[in-house]
Amino acid sequence: MVRKVALASVLIGLCVTWLSGNMDRRLDWMLDSKRIYYNALEMPSDGRPALVATAPDNEFRWPTPPGAGLGVRIQVAYLNLKQRLGIRDAARTRMWPSMTNQQWRVYQGLGRCTEITGRRYLAAEEALERVVTFGTSNQISGAQWAANFEQAVRDNGWLLITGRLGLVTVIPKDKLEEYQTAGLAKPRN
Length: 189
Prior knowledge:
- The protein is an alpha/beta fold and 189 residues long.
- It has 2 domains: 1-33; 34-56 and 91-181, Ribosomal Protein S8, Chain: A, domain 1 (2-Layer Sandwich).
- It has 6 helices and 9 strands, in the order H-H-E-E-H-E-E-H-E-E-E-H-E-E-H.
- It has helices at 2-20, 24-31, 70-85, 106-117, 142-155, 176-181, and strands at 37-38, 51-53, 94-95, 102-105, 121-124, 131-134, 140-141, 158-162, 168-172.
- A 5-stranded mixed β-sheet has the order 1-2-5-9-8, covered by helices on one side. It has a two-stranded antiparallel sheet with strand order 3-7.
- Helix 4 (106-117) runs antiparallel to helix 5 (142-155).
- It is globular and about 65 Å long.
- 18% of the residues are buried.
């Protein structure tokens, strides 16, 4: 009986620690010994090429409307749990029409793609400042939106190189050789 209680306590503690996200950054730092990508706020200042990782915004919380009934509160709690656990359904996510000539920073748009589909991107540091023109005139699914944004990025002179485990490296075509020399992109065959 004591063993079962101790095991249950340890499992609950591990679940709480995992769900809180307190260990995510430390584990990422320990597991990533080469450190080929950076947080957008931690870019190297010595001029060498660097990649910036996109990450879904798991910190977002749907607000509970004031005076909401039990059904609405349960629905909001469910949406927040899905957001926290990273459960996404890009085919069922709906994206509303926007201006077709809207300016998007490449990194910002790739971050939105990550939030919708869960697909991760390593973008060249130039993606923090460069923009692409993108928008939709119809309501489309999240998967269509992400595919269309990726195509807009390609059309504006960027390479999207899919690596192992579906990780996509995004590099400007004019800087490919520089990133290959630094070992951040594989030579094209």
